[in-house]
Design brief:
single chain, Rossmann fold, binds cytidine-5'-triphosphate, two-stranded antiparallel sheet, about 220 residues, about 25% strand, EC 4.1.1.36, binds calcium ion, alpha/beta, metal ion binding, eight-stranded mixed sheet
Amino acid sequence: LVAALTPQTLAGKRLLITAGPTYEAIDPVRGITNRSSGKMGFAIARAAREAGAQVTLVAGPVNLTTPHGVSRLNVTSARDMLTAVQAQVDAADLFIATAAVADWRPANAADQKIKKDGSGQVPELAFVENPDILATVAHSPRAQSGALYCVGFAAESQDLLANAQTKRARKQVPLLVGNIGPQTFGLDDNALLLVDAHGHTELPRADKLTLARQLVAEVARRLAA
Ligand code: CTP
Ligand code: CA
């Protein structure tokens, strides 16, 4: 019913979207991750589907129901997420990266559980940088030619506008969306800052599905332009 009442602004468009955190193993029972409920990404996937898009959602470990009509691929680590994205991206018109990808992973995940030896000694962990999924996609020839429209998100704890502008330029995406804090992790409400080459606008505080629908309408306008 909702889809029947929603303007089909993304009819015929194929959206690939990442959502949720990634999880990087230290050993079979421990790992590092980022804070992300995945709610914003899942809401965007749902809103895009309602607007007529064919949606593929690449999701890190989250406890959320797949939106109706959305095709979902579950992944764990950043490298899994990149592999899944690369397998799907050639078929997409639009790529939206909402995932909170872990920036680093342990350099050598242990095959067996690391045991305390009772001496109080702590393990020394070394990290390596994970691939930047959004930058990899946004730097591809299809994205650079405009055949693939890329949207990034920015998680910042301070100086949102300045950091978002720098990030937009560094990732080479036409549109970067910042979460207007202070703390929206896991909450149902959010507010968004949209940063593009011309400036910035705000989508004021609302529930994530409302914001997702507004963002989808905005992205559809840009795709059509
Ligand atoms: N991103 C990604 N792959 C990564 C890191 C980030 O695809 N390895 C994407 C996120 O999904 C988001 C955007 O890049 O759309 C910005 O992520 P963010 O963590 O805010 O920026 P970083 O470039 O990782 O910089 P930092 O964490 O230092 O602020
Ligand atoms: Ca990061």
